[in-house]
Amino acid sequence: MADDSNFVPLQFVELPESEMFTRARLFYQQLQGRRTTRQFSTRSVPRELIELAVSSAGTAPSGAHLQPWTFVMISNSELKKKIRTAAENEERRFYAERIPEAWEEVLSPLGTDHVKEHITDAPWIVILFRHSQRRRRNGEMAPTYYSQESCGIAAGMFIAAIHDMGLVCLTHTPSPMGFLGEILERPEHESAMLLMPVGYPADDAMVPDLERKKLSEILIFKE
Ligand code: IYR
């Protein structure tokens, strides 16, 4: 058992149940309005807004509290162009040669292709790097734990924060994305996991007419 001196009292504020219901409904309603967007306006967005979303993401729980993530925020046009070119080169091969039939079956209704305008249109590109290892104070490398889960949770919190502040984002996964670590000069133990353009949607942005699964399809009760 850890030494008590490592612990502080939990700052828990209990809410009346009626307020819990009100908040829970509002939160759901707010998230229900989120849509992944592929067409971005070039309109600028203050850097501090995106920094706040990264701060929110950084509150995510993580395996052994190792916080195995680095977020790289890019607004530099030259760098965005370089990343877009590299992503499109990979994606061109993916769509033309590598895409398995079963994958094409579920992707074609979404109308995606190798052209990635969002990388240069969006004012900010946020790239989430997952740490597969950590560096000890003495410089030695040691494992991280549940880094996929931890980064997945952090990404979800980032996406929710972006939506909540009234902006949109796309969870883009150029495949493979090793080029991002090279271009952004990240250390070997960090691998790019998500590339997220963030900003305002284009005036004529369209999204697929999707339906979300009903609660009864995603939830099983054992009472
Ligand atoms: N990485 C490709 C393909 C792609 C894969 C999935 I799964 C998507 O939901 C959407 C696209 C691309 O970004 O186009």
The tally of strands reads 6
The molecules bound to the chains, other than polymers, are:
3-iodo-tyrosine
* Structural class by sheet pairing and helices: alpha+beta
Broad shape:
globular
Spatial separation of the terminal alpha carbons: 33 Å
Helix content: 25-40%
Give the SSE string: HHEHHHEEEHEHEH
Strand percentage, roughly? Answer: 5-15%
Describe the 3D structure:
- It contains 8 helices and 6 strands.
- The chain has 223 residues and is of the alpha+beta class.
- The strands form 2 sheets. Strands 1-2-6-5 form a 4-stranded antiparallel beta sheet.
- Strand 3 (133-135) and strand 4 form a beta hairpin.
- Helix 2 (47-57) packs across helix 6.
- Bound molecules: 3-iodo-tyrosine.
- 3-iodo-tyrosine (IYR) is lined by residues 91, 94, 107, 110, 112, 172-175.
- The site of 3-iodo-tyrosine has 9 residues, from helix 3.
Compile the SSE list and pairings.
Blueprint: H1 17-32, H2 47-57, E1 69-74, H3 77-98, H4 101-107, H5 118-121, E2 124-131, E3 133-135, E4 141-143, H6 147-164, E5 168-169, H7 178-183, E6 190-199, H8 215-218
Antiparallel strand pairs: 1-2, 2-6, 3-4, 5-6
This protein binds 3-iodo-tyrosine.
Properties at a glance:
single chain, 223 residues, alpha+beta, NADH Oxidase, four-stranded antiparallel beta sheet, 8 helices, binds 3-iodo-tyrosine
Gist?
This protein is α+β, with helices and mostly antiparallel strands and 223 residues long. The protein is built from 8 helices and 6 strands; from the N terminus they run ααβαααβββαβαβα. α2 (47-57) packs across α6 (147-164).
